[in-house]
C-alpha cells in the first residue's frame, strides 16, 4: 500500500487524463452490462410482479396457450375433489386514450367466486357492489380501477372511462376504486377489473376463458393438484403455478437477452485491451523508476504486486462508476426494451421502476475489477522481470523482440490452422465454438505483426502525401508497436462486431423482404390492433361474411395466430384456409412439393413447419408431430417445410377447420384481404371502416403500411444492438486517444525539434492527425477482415443454436463503405486533444536542454 | 543585426527563478561571438531567446530590425525557420529519417518543390563533406558526422544568424575541433552572424568577441 501511495499516486496525478482514459474502458463495459441486465430484469420483474399480484392466492393456473378454452372446462375443473376454488379469468389490454398514461390491463373475473382467491381492498366503492357482486354482474358496463390510475386521471366513483372494444368504443362506469397495495399495484397500477362475461363480448372471446386460477383443498400439495388436473384435462392444457408464466416470458426474451449479454461482455473484453495497452505503456515509461526500486531492494513480487494493485484500484473505480452509470442507462433502456418486446411479441409492459439486483451489481463490479487485473497480468509480469541495470539505461524499449514476435506468430498460425480444422467438424457444437475462439485468438495474436507490416506499407503513401508529417507519423507507429497494437486490437474487435451485426442485419432484412414479397401479399389486413403482434381482442368468425360483402373485395382469408409451447420453444400456431392461401401465395419450399403440401394440409392430412422450427426440433418431411390441444392430442405428419419468418422461434401451419375443431376456437386475429382488380385500396378501406368501424374496434392496414411496420420492428431490434456497437466503438476510440496521448509524450523531443527547425503548429498537428488516421486505417483493414470471418460464425450460431433461421452469407458492403469515413473521422476527432497538447507547452523543455 | 534591450527571463515554478536579468546586447552582422559563463548563468536561455525558442518576460529582442515580441507564434516559427539556424549540443536529429531527409526537413516544412528540396539538401551535405552518407540513418554515423548533418540542416535557408549551443560539448577534442573549424569556415564563406555558447575556453578565444554571463547578467564583453 505504501508503494501505491508513494509511487503510483504521483504518476497517476501527473498523467491524470491517461489514468481517466484507462478506466473509461472498464466504465463503459460495466455500464453496458449493468444497464442491459438491469433493463431486462426490470422488464421481467414487472411482468412477474403483475402475474403474482394478479394471481393473489391462486396456487395453480390452467391455460391452453393463447388459444384459450371453452367455458365447459371450468365445470370439469370444479368437479375435482382436490379443488377448493376455481376462478375463470380473461386478461386483455385496453387503451383508454389518456395521454402518457399507457394501456390498461383488464382483469376480467367472475365476481361471485373470485374473492376466494383475490383480495379486493376498496378505497371507495358503490356499497351495493361490495355487498352483492351479482349487482356488478348485472351492470356489464361496470369497471373497478386502482386508486393510482383513478387519481392520476381524476376519475371518481361513478365516473366514466372509455376504450375501444370489439363492439366499438364503449364507456364504462367506475363502481369501485381499489386501495394501493397488493393487486392494485399490478401492471404499474394500470389495472382495471370487469366482469368476465361482459369481457367475453367486449374482447371477442366468444364462450372462451383465457385461464382458470385454482385454489387447492387443504392438505392437497401442488404436485397432487397438478397431477389431478393434468390427468383430467389432457396434454392440451398447461397446469402450472403462476410463476410458470414468468418462465415462459423469459424464454420469449431468450434470444434478446443472449444478444444483449454477448454484446455487453464483448464491450468489457474490448475495455480489457485498453487497460492492457495503458499498463504495457506505463511499464515501458516507468522502466527507470522500476530500475531504481529494484536497485534499492524491491523484490520482483513487490513490483508485480504494485502494478496489479494499480490495476485493481483502477478496475474498482472504473467498475463502481460504470455500475452507477449503468443504473442511469437502465431507465432509458427499460423503456426501449419494453416497447420493442411489445412490438415483437405482443406482450405489453408497464415498467415503472428499474429493478436493480445488488448481487448482480457486485458481480458486474467484480467482473470489471477482474478484467482490469487480468489485463494487467502480462505487463505486471514484464515489469517484475526488468533487470535494474537495464532499466537504468537510457533508450527506448518499444521494439518487439524478434523472438517474441516469432513465437506469437507461430502460435497464431497454429490457432488459425486448428480453427480451419474445426470447420468440417462444426456439426459437433464444441468443435464449432472452439473454432470461433481459435479464430479470435489467431486474429489477436497476429495483430502486432500485421499492425507493424501495415504501418510499414503505409509509410510510403503517407510520406508521399506529406513528406515530413506523414513520414514521422508512420515512423512513430513502426517504432512503437507495443503502443499501437493493443489499440488496433480493440478497434479490430469492435469493427468486427459492427461488420458481423451488419452482415446479420443485411441478410435478415433481405430474407424478410423476400418473405414479405411472397407471403405478405394481400392488399390489406384487418386487425384488432395496430400492433399486429398483440392480440388482446379477437374478431368473431361471422365478420368474415360481413367483409366479403364489401364491394371491391375479392377474397378474405381469416388467420388465427396463438402462441404455444412446442418442444420447449415458444412457437406460433398459424391456422388459416390453406386452399385459398395456396392459390395466392408462392412459398419458398425447403422440403416437399408445394402443390402436394397445400393439398394435404388443406385436407387436414398434415401440417407445415417453418424451416427454422424444423431445424431447432430436428423434424423432417414425413415425421409425425403431436400437438397438445384442449380437446386431445392432434397427430399429423409434416407435409412440407417452408421458409417462414412470422416468428423468431418458428411457426406451425394447420388448416383452420382443424384448429377450430381441436381448440374449440373460431375467433380470428387477422383477416387477409385481396381486392378485385381495379379496386381502390383507399376506397375499400373507407367502406370497411364506415360499415363496421362503429360497431367494432378494428384497424385496416394497407400492405405498404404493414411492410413499414415490419421494417420499424426490425429496425428497433437491430437498433438496440447498434447501441451496443456504438458503445464498443467509443471504447475503441478511447484506445486511440490513449495511444496518441502516450505517443505525444514519447515524441515530445521529436516534435520539439520539428518546431525548432520551423514546423508550424498546424504541421505538428498534422503529424498527430496522420498517426491517428493510420491507426484508424489499420484497425479498419484488420477489423473488416476479421468481421468477414466472424460473420460466418455468427450466421452459423443463429442457425444452429439460436433460432434455426438459415441466413445466406451476405457481406455488408454498405456498412463497410460507411465505416471507413466514420472511423477516419472518429480517429481524427480522437486526435484533437492530443494534437493540441503536442503544440502547447515549452519548446525548450521539449528539446530537453540541460 | 541582433539587439537585446533590458531583456529579462523569469521562470515561475515553485519559486521564481530569474534566468536572465536586464540584459542589453548588440551583435553586428557577420560577427562571430562566443557566450561563456558558469553553469546556470543564463547562456542557453540567452540563446533560446535570440533563437525564438522562448519569449522574454520583459525587454525587447530585435532580429534584423524586427521585434520578436510583435510576432505571432507562427510568424516567430517562420523567422526561426528562414533566418536562424540552430545547432544543438545533442544534435537533435530525427532517428527514423536519413541524413538527406533530416537536412531536407526545414525545406519540406516551407513547402518547396521536391526537386528543389532534393537538390539543395544534397548541396548542403556536400558542403559539410557528407555527400556519401545521404541515405544513412543517424544511428549509423559517428558523433562528428551527426553534428555535421545538424549543421547542414541549420543552413537549409542559408540563414543570416547561426546559433550553436555547445556544438562540441558531446564530441571528443579532435572531432570538436573539426566541427569548430567547419563552423568558422561557414562563417567566413557565408558571412552569417554566429553565436556560440561554450564551456570551452579554446572555443571562446577563437571567436572575435566573447560575452561573459554571470548570475543572469552580462559580466564581461571582450573584443579581440
For the structure shown, list the relevant keywords.
heterodimer; A: 850 residues; alpha+beta; 4 domains; 11-stranded mixed sheet; 60% helix; B: 224 residues; alpha/beta; Rossmann fold; 6-stranded mixed sheet; 4-stranded antiparallel sheet; 7 helices
What topology does this entry show?
The complex is a heterodimer of chains A (850) and B (224).
Chain A: H1 2-14, H2 16-55, E1 60-63, E2 69-70, H3 72-78, E3 83-94, E4 104-109, H4 111-114, E5 122-125, H5 127-131, H6 133-138, E6 142-146, H7 147-152, E7 160-165, E8 168-178, E9 191-195, H8 196-202, E10 208-209, E11 211-216, H9 222-233, E12 238-240, H10 243-285, H11 287-295, H12 300-345, H13 358-385, H14 388-391, H15 402-422, H16 429-465, H17 467-479, H18 481-518, E13 524-527, H19 543-548, E14 553-560, E15 563-566, E16 569-576, H20 578-584, E17 589-591, H21 594-602, E18 607-610, H22 611-617, E19 624-629, E20 632-642, E21 651-655, H23 656-663, E22 670-675, H24 681-692, E23 699-702, H25 703-746, H26 748-756, H27 761-802, H28 813-830, H29 832-839, H30 843-846
Parallel strand pairs in A: 4-9, 6-8, 16-21, 18-20
Antiparallel strand pairs in A: 1-11, 1-12, 2-10, 3-4, 3-11, 5-8, 6-9, 7-8, 13-22, 13-23, 14-16, 14-22, 15-16, 17-20, 18-21, 19-20
Chain B: E1 2-12, E2 16-27, E3 32-36, H1 43-50, E4 58-63, E5 66-67, H2 73-83, E6 84-87, H3 99-110, H4 114-127, H5 143-154, E7 161-165, H6 173-190, E8 193-197, H7 201-205, E9 209-214, E10 217-223
Parallel strand pairs in B: 3-8, 3-9, 6-7, 7-8
Antiparallel strand pairs in B: 1-2, 1-4, 4-5, 9-10
What does this structure look like?
By secondary structure, chain A is of the alpha+beta class. Chain A has 30 helices and 23 strands. In chain A, the strands form three sheets. In chain A, strands 13, 14, 15, 16, 17, 18, 19, 20, 21, 22 and 23 form an eleven-stranded mixed sheet that branches. In chain A, strands 1, 3, 4, 5, 6, 7, 8, 9, 11 and 12 form a ten-stranded mixed sheet that branches. Chain B has 224 residues and is α/β, with parallel strands linked by helices. Chain B is built from seven helices and ten strands. Chain B has helices at residues 43-50, 73-83, 99-110, 114-127, 143-154, 173-190, 201-205, and strands spanning 2-12, 16-27, 32-36, 58-63, 66-67, 84-87, 161-165, 193-197, 209-214, 217-223. The two termini of chain B are 19 Å apart. At the A-B interface, helix 17 and helix 26 of A face helix 2 and helix 3 of B.
Amino acid at each position: 500500500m505504501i508503494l501505491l501511495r508513494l509511487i503510483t499516486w504521483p504518476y497517476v496525478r501527473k498523467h491524470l487524463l491517461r489514468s481517466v482514459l484507462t478506466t473509461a474502458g472498464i466504465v463503459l463495459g460495466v455500464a453496458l452490462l449493468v444497464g442491459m441486465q438491469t433493463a431486462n430484469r426490470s422488464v421481467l420483474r414487472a411482468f412477474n410482479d403483475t402475474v403474482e399480484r394478479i394471481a393473489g392466492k391462486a396456487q395453480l393456473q390452467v391455460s391452453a396457450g393463447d388459444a384459450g378454452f371453452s367455458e365447459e372446462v371450468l365445470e370439469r375443473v370444479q368437479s375435482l375433489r382436490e379443488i377448493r376454488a376455481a376462478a375463470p379469468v380473461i386478461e386483455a389490454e385496453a387503451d383508454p386514450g389518456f395521454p402518457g398514461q399507457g394501456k390498461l390491463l383488464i382483469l376480467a373475473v367472475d365476481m361471485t367466486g373470485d374473492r376466494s382467491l383475490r383480495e379486493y381492498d376498496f378505497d371507495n366503492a358503490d356499497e351495493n357492489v361490495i355487498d352483492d357482486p351479482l349487482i356488478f354482474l348485472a351492470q356489464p358496463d361496470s369497471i373497478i380501477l386502482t386508486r393510482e390510475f383513478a387519481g392520476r386521471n381524476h376519475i371518481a366513483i361513478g365516473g366514466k372511462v372509455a376504450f375501444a372494444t370489439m363492439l366499438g368504443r364503449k364507456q364504462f362506469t367506475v363502481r369501485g376504486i381499489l386501495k394501493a397495495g397488493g393487486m392494485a399495484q399490478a401492471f404499474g397500477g394500470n389495472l382495471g377489473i370487469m366482469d368476465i362475461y361482459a369481457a367475453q363480448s367486449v374482447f371477442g372471446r366468444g364462450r372462451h376463458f383465457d385461464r382458470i386460477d385454482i385454489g387447492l383443498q387443504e392438505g392437497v400439495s401442488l404436485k397432487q393438484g397438478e397431477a389431478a388436473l393434468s390427468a383430467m384435462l389432457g396434454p392440451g392444457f398447461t397446469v402450472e403455478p403462476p410463476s410458470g408464466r414468468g418462465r415462459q416470458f423469459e424464454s420469449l426474451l431468450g434470444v434478446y437477452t443472449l444478444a444483449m449479454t454477448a454484446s455487453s461482455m464483448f464491450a468489457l473484453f474490448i475495455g480489457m485491451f485498453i487497460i492492457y495497452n495503458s499498463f504495457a505503456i506505463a511499464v515501458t515509461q516507468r522502466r527507470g523508476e522500476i530500475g531504481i526500486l529494484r536497485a534499492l531492494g524491491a523484490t520482483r513480487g513487490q513490483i508485480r504486486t504494485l502494478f496489479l494493485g494499480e490495476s485493481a484500484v483502477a478496475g474498482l473505480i472504473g467498475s463502481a462508476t460504470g455500475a452507477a452509470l449503468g443504473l442511469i442507462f437502465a431507465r432509458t433502456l427499460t423503456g426501449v426494451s419494453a416497447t420493442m418486446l411489445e412490438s415483437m411479441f405482443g406482450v405489453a409492459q408497464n415498467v415503472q421502476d428499474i429493478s436493480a439486483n445488488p448481487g448482480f451489481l457486485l458481480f458486474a463490479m467484480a467482473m470489471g475489477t477482474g478484467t482490469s487485473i487480468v489485463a494487467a497480468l502480462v505487463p505486471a509480469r514484464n515489469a517484475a522481470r526488468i533487470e535494474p541495470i537495464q532499466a537504468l539505461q537510457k533508450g527506448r524499449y518499444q521494439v518487439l523482440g524478434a523472438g517474441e514476435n516469432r513465437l506469437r506468430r507461430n502460435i497464431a498460425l497454429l490457432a488459425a490452422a486448428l480453427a480451419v480444422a474445426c470447420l468440417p467438424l462444426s456439426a459437433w457444437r464444441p468443435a464449432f465454438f472452439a473454432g470461433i475462439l481459435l479464430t479470435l485468438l489467431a486474429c489477436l495474436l497476429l495483430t502486432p505483426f500485421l499492425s507493424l507490416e501495415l504501418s510499414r506499407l503505409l509509410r510510403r503513401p503517407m510520406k508521399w502525401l506529406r513528406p515530413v508529417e506523414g513520414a514521422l507519423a508512420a515512423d512513430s507507429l513502426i517504432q512503437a508497436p507495443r503502443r499501437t497494437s493493443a489499440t488496433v486490437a480493440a478497434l479490430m474487435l469492435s469493427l468486427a462486431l459492427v461488420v458481423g451485426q451488419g452482415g446479420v442485419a443485411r441478410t435478415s432484412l433481405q430474407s424478410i423482404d423476400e418473405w414479405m414479397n411472397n407471403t405478405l401479399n394481400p392488399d390489406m389486413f384487418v386487425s384488432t390492433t395496430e400492433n399486429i403482434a398483440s392480440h388482446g381482442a379477437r374478431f368473431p368468425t361471422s365478420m368474415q361474411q360481413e367483409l366479403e360483402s364489401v364491394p371491391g373485395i375479392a377474397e378474405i382469408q381469416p388467420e388465427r395466430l396463438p402462441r404455444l409451447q412446442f418442444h420447449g420453444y415458444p412457437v406460433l400456431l398459424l391456422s388459416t384456409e390453406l386452399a385459398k392461401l395456396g392459390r395466392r401465395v408462392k412459398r419458398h419450399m425447403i422440403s416437399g412439393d408445394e402443390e402436394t403440401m397445400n393439398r394435404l394440409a388443406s385436407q387436414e392430412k398434415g401440417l407445415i413447419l417453418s424451416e427454422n422450427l424444423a431445424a431447432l426440433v430436428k423434424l423432417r418431411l414425413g415425421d409425425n408431430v403431436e400437438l397438445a390441444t384442449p380437446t386431445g392430442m392432434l397427430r399429423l405428419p409434416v407435409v412440407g417445410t417452408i421458409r417462414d419468418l412470422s416468428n423468431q422461434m418458428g411457426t406451425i401451419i394447420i388448416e383452420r377447420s382443424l384448429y377450430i375443431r381441436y381448440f374449440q376456437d373460431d375467433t380470428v386475429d387477422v383477416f387477409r384481404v385481396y381486392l378485385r382488380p381495379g379496386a381502390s385500396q383507399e376506397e375499400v378501406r373507407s367502406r370497411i371502416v364506415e360499415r363496421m368501424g362503429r360497431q367494432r374496434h378494428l384497424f385496416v392496414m394497407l400492405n405498404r403500411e404493414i411492410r413499414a411496420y415490419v421494417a420499424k420492428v426490425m429496425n428497433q431490434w437491430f437498433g438496440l444492438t447498434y447501441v451496443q456497437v456504438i458503445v464498443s466503438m467509443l471504447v475503441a476510440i478511447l484506445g486511440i486517444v490513449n495511444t496518441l496521448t502516450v505517443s505525444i509524450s514519447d515524441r515530445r523531443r521529436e516534435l520539439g525539434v520539428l518546431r525548432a527547425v520551423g514546423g508550424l503548429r498546424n504541421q505538428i498537428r498534422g503529424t498527430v492527425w496522420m498517426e491517428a488516421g493510420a491507426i484508424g486505417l489499420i484497425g479498419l483493414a484488420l477489423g473488416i477482415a476479421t468481421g468477414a470471418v466472424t460473420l460466418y460464425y455468427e450466421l452459423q450460431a443463429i442457425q444452429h443454436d439460436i433460432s434455426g433461421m438459415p441466413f445466406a452469407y451476405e457481406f455488408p458492403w454498405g456498412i463497410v463503405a460507411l465505416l471507413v469515413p466514420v472511423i477516419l473521422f472518429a480517429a481524427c476527432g480522437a486526435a484533437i486533444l492530443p494534437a493540441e497538447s503536442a503544440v502547447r507547452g515549452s519548446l525548450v523543455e521539449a528539446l530537453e536542454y540541460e | 543585426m541582433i539587439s537585446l534591450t533590458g531583456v529579462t527571463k523569469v521562470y515561475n515554478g515553485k519559486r521564481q527563478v530569474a534566468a536572465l536579468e536586464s540584459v542589453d546586447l548588440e551583435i553586428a552582422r557577420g560577427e562571430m561571438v562566443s557566450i561563456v559563463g558558469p553553469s546556470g548563468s543564463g547562456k542557453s536561455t540567452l540563446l533560446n531567446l535570440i533563437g525564438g525558442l522562448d519569449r522574454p518576460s520583459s525587454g525587447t529582442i530585435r532580429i534584423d530590425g524586427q521585434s520578436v515580441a510583435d510576432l505571432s507564434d507562427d510568424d516567430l516559427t517562420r523567422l526561426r525557420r528562414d533566418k536562424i539556424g540552430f545547432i544543438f549540443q545533442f544534435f537533435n536529429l530525427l532517428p527514423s529519417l536519413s541524413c538527406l531527409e533530416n537536412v531536407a526537413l526545414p525545406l519540406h516544412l516551407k513547402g518547396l518543390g521536391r526537386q528543389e528540396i532534393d537538390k539543395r539538401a544534397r548541396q548542403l551535405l556536400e558542403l559539410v563533406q557528407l555527400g556519401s552518407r545521404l541515405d544513412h540513418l543517424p544511428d549509423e554515423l559517428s558523433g562528428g558526422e551527426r553534428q555535421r548533418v545538424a549543421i547542414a540542416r541549420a543552413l537549409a535557408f542559408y540563414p543570416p544568424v547561426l546559433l550553436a549551443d555547445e556544438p562540441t560539448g558531446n564530441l571528443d577534442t579532435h572531432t570538436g575541433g573539426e566541427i569548430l573549424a567547419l563552423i568558422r569556415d561557414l562563417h567566413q564563406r557565408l558571412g552569417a552572424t554566429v553565436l556560440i555558447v561554450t564551456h570551452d575556453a579554446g572555443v571562446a578565444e577563437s571567436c572575435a568577441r566573447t560575452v561573459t554571463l554571470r548570475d543572469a547578467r552580462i559580466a564581461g564583453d571582450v573584443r579581440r
